[in-house]
Amino acid sequence: DKEVRAIFLRLFAQLFQGYRSCLQLIRIHAEPVIHFHKAAFLGQRGLIENDFLTKVLNGMAFAGFVSERGPPFRTCDLFDELVAFEVERIKAEEGNPPKMIKHVRELAEQLFKNENPNPHMAFQKVPRPTEGSHLRVHILPFPRINEGRVQELLQEGLARAQGAPPATRGDKKCVVPAGPPVGMFMSA
């Protein structure tokens, strides 16, 4: 499934290349609002008559995309890198399927690494019970829980949690790379 996701990642990166140059930050409200200039995006790419892309840009999913990916300072990911730095590579691979497949596999591998940062941790499967295991009589009953000990453990955990600094993810925020301007992607 990572290769299918990589294909869609490339598709959306191609579809939205240059979108950052059409973002406008409006600061008249208490909190800044990010607006996407659809007409400029479609006009600069020569796609004003493209019904599909117009409908995509008018959809709620794209509005969520802009609000989520619009801020100029946030955690960057593989999509941001693809849109900003892989423009020429994607263009060059259009007529070369083996190179395109190689790139898709590289992206799939990167997606896998992003989701499984500790490859040495193996997932152990729980073995299926043997046939007739439910008939065994020698199974011990589940032990009784000592309520006093449970309370002690809870109090110890709470005391440790109060003294520890708040847990934060290692996501580092950075300035999102803008990539090439949208005018560079005129359709042929």
From TrEMBL:
<dbReference type="GO" id="GO:0032483">
    <property type="term" value="P:regulation of Rab protein signal transduction"/>
</dbReference>
<dbReference type="GO" id="GO:0031410">
    <property type="term" value="C:cytoplasmic vesicle"/>
</dbReference>
<protein>
    <submittedName>
        <fullName>MTMRD protein</fullName>
    </submittedName>
</protein>
<feature type="domain" description="UDENN">
    <location>
        <begin position="1"/>
        <end position="76"/>
    </location>
</feature>
<dbReference type="InterPro" id="IPR037516">
    <property type="entry name" value="Tripartite_DENN"/>
</dbReference>
<dbReference type="InterPro" id="IPR005112">
    <property type="entry name" value="dDENN_dom"/>
</dbReference>
<dbReference type="InterPro" id="IPR051696">
    <property type="entry name" value="DENN_Domain_GEFs"/>
</dbReference>
<dbReference type="GO" id="GO:0005085">
    <property type="term" value="F:guanyl-nucleotide exchange factor activity"/>
</dbReference>
